[in-house]
Predict the structure.
Amino acid sequence: MNTLPIGVVKQKNSLYTVSRSNRPVYGEKIRKIEVGYLREWNPKRSKLAAAIVKHITTVPLKQNSSVLYLGAASGTTVSHISDICSSGRVYAIEKAYDPFVQLLDLSQQRDNIYPIIEDAGQVDRFRFFIDRVDMIYQDIAQRNQVQIFNSNAAAFTDARDALLVLKIRAISSKGHERDILQEATSRIEGFRVLETVDLSPFSKSNYMLRLKRL
Ligand SMILES: C[S@@+](CC[C@H](N)C(=O)[O-])C[C@H]1O[C@@H](n2cnc3c(N)ncnc32)[C@H](O)[C@@H]1O
């Protein structure tokens, strides 16, 4: 049994976020309820949804949380975090132009998404745009993903919690998955690992780490 943040609903076998918006972001089903809309949250499209379906114990997000999101792409998961943190902020960093254009469009429909086109590894280039954050969420499939996380963890010292997706085969195509995971985990600085969730079958070779500031 996991504790779901306010704003996340499980019904039968499906997961939803409560939204003020009735506009689909990635073709998801939406239906009207008394307090707004329920937006279906697809674990095959979002690793955070997959982590919840795979029973992550808790998700460190509140209604007023400020989140630094590294590797936002076109905003699939960002949009659900924007629903959950309805009175907070989501600073969404994405370096590729094409998904960023869609992210920008999404941010024009929602007043709590702040899109920034930058390389997440170059923290000095976006640190000054961002006030403070409670949580760091990272989903970047690069060989240096732990290094990117460490540089942001060092720059955003108010962040007490983090969710870090480790894409094992982006770190190394050789060797046992568990060995690469262990080695990558040992390089995380400033945070300890509270929980590791294997995201298969929704997302192969991806693990969600729940971290707490030391
Ligand atoms: C797996 S996708 C993210 C999916 C997204 N998190 C979601 O759930 O909706 C990874 C994204 O990270 C971006 N990315 C890769 N390296 C990056 C970097 N150094 N800085 C910022 N974004 C990066 C890629 O362009 C890609 O859009």
Residues 44 and 110 are 24 Å apart (CA to CA).
